[in-house]
Amino acid sequence: MNNGYRIAIVGATGMVGQEFIKVLLQRKFPVSAISLYASDRSAGRKMFVGSQELLVKETAGDSFDNIDIVLFSAGADISRHFAPIAAKSGALVIDNSAAWRMDPRVPLVVPEVNADDIKKHRGIIANPNCSTIQMVVALNPLHKVNPIKRVIVSTYQSVSGTGLAAVEELTKQSKIVLEGGNVIPHVYAHQIAFNLLPEIDVFMDNGYTKEEWKMVEETRKIMHAEHMQISATCVRVPVFIAHSEAVNVEFTEYMGPDEARSLLSKVPGIKVLDDPNVSLYPQPWLAAGTDDVYVGRIRSDASLMNGLVMWVVSDNIRKGAALNAVQIAEEAVRNDWVKVNNK
Ligand SMILES: NC(=O)c1ccc[n+]([C@@H]2O[C@H](COP(=O)([O-])OP(=O)(O)OC[C@H]3O[C@@H](n4cnc5c(N)ncnc54)[C@H](OP(=O)(O)O)[C@@H]3O)[C@@H](O)[C@H]2O)c1
Question: Any residues with CB less than 8 A from the CB of 303 and at least 6 apart, and which?
């Protein structure tokens, strides 16, 4: 850690916070110092950042003095309270929660799609929902050549999307069920082991869940496509890492599967895995721990003239959260859109 930016991570002990540390080191982000923050529960705990052992501190109003970039992943309430304080102190905030995503003053960014929006930031940049990120990475290259009119998506989302407690819950419940015991759910409304739950985030008055509605609103904002018709059904599945999505797309004009495969395979950050002859298609356990968005099962929609169906898989903790946030920071630094605070 020498010449570089002073980074604070809020929620450093969580699933996404720990991945922030990994991604910053793996991508050799220019870091001069890292400060780790969490709640009072973890204050005093020590964590390794590379070979350095650092103390986790309780998040407070003065945590962001002399910090250049703050990565938040401690839930929406914490971001709502502390992100404006951090921004006011001069730091660039990249927020992983849903707190600021739909605020018109806050850019919502997936660098492969709308990196230019970063420059409009006023101190806070929002990182989109994990399911939305991987979908827009796959949709955008197709939309650019043949505007998309409508998207119907069904998700198969891993438990790591809920955080560390849900990963532990699936582990424990799986053992209990295999040993013939009775499960008492804590994190989810029902048992998640050997089950599927079509409920992610809270239900809204229109019958959708908030997670489903995030996919609608965030996709339109990121892709600058306010009239795109989108309907989502989000399902929690007993998979530890990586979300999968069946995506039905209706284009303005016909697009064949070969054209879609060819367009997608040229995009950095996308890997097309699509050969039914050898059962080649994206799977969550292959995507876990990697950076790409994987696309396969690309075929014409037999029910629709200009329709295409595809299967999109990505690691929700990496591209769906930590990696995307660090890529935003990299873009901001590369373009000089982050000021160095009090240096
Ligand atoms: N997991 C994903 O795939 C994903 C993807 C995109 C966005 N996100 C978002 O990222 C955030 C965290 O998710 P996660 O999966 O990392 O959850 P997690 O594993 O449950 O971790 C939560 C983190 O938040 C900290 N925290 C909780 N209450 C706090 C408080 N009052 N003050 C300061 N820190 C506090 C926790 O610290 P303690 O150790 O002190 O409890 C912990 O570090 C959420 O907003 C989530 O929506 C998650």
Answer: none
3 with 31: CB under 8 angstroms?
A: no
Residue 25 CA, ligand 1 centroid: distance in Å: 20
Torsional class of 127: left (φ above 0), alpha (ψ -120 to 50), beta (otherwise)? beta
Closest-lying ligand 1 atom to the alpha carbon of residue 16: 16
> Which residue's alpha carbon is at the smallest distance from atom 2 of ligand 1?
161
Radius of gyration for the chain, computed over Cα atoms and rounded to the nearest angstrom? 20
Q: Given the CA of residue 158, which atom of ligand 1 is nearest to it?
A: 3
Could you give the angle at the alpha carbon of 215 between the alpha carbons of 209 and 219, nearest 5°?
A: 155
Q: How far apart are CA 328 and CA 330, in angstroms?
A: 5
For the chain, give the longest Cα–Cα distance.
61
Do residues 164 and 75 touch, judged by C-beta distance below 8 A?
A: no
Question: Pick the catalytic residue: 121, 143, 234, 243?
Answer: 243
For strand 148-157 and strand 243-251, is the pairing parallel, antiparallel, or unpaired? antiparallel
Mark whether 186 is an active-site residue: no
**Does 130 participate in catalysis according to the annotation?**
yes
Atom 26 of ligand 1: nearest residue by CA position? 74
> Is the Cβ atom of 14 under 6 angstroms away from ligand 1?
yes
Distance 211 CA to ligand 1 centre (A): 16
Mean pLDDT of 242-246: 99
Which one of the listed residues 81, 121, 130, 143 is annotated catalytic? Answer: 130
- For the whole model, what pTM was predicted? 0.96
Task: Report whether 77 contacts 98 (CB < 8 A).
Answer: no
- Residue the block writes with tokens 């599967």: 257
CB contact burial 295-311 (16+ within 10 A = b; e otherwise): bbbbbbeeeeebbbbbb
Strands, sheet with 293-300, edge to edge from the N-terminal-most edge strand: 229-236, 148-157, 243-251, 307-314, 293-300, 270-272
Number of Cβ within 10 Å of residue 102's Cβ equals 15
Whether 241 lines ligand 1, by a CB cut-off of 6 Å, is: no
What pLDDT band is residue 343 in, cutting at 50, 70 and 90?
very low
Q: What does the pLDDT look like over 44-56, one tens digit per residue? A: 999 999 999 999 9
Query: Which residues on neighbouring strands pair with residue 31, listed in sequence order?
Result: 5
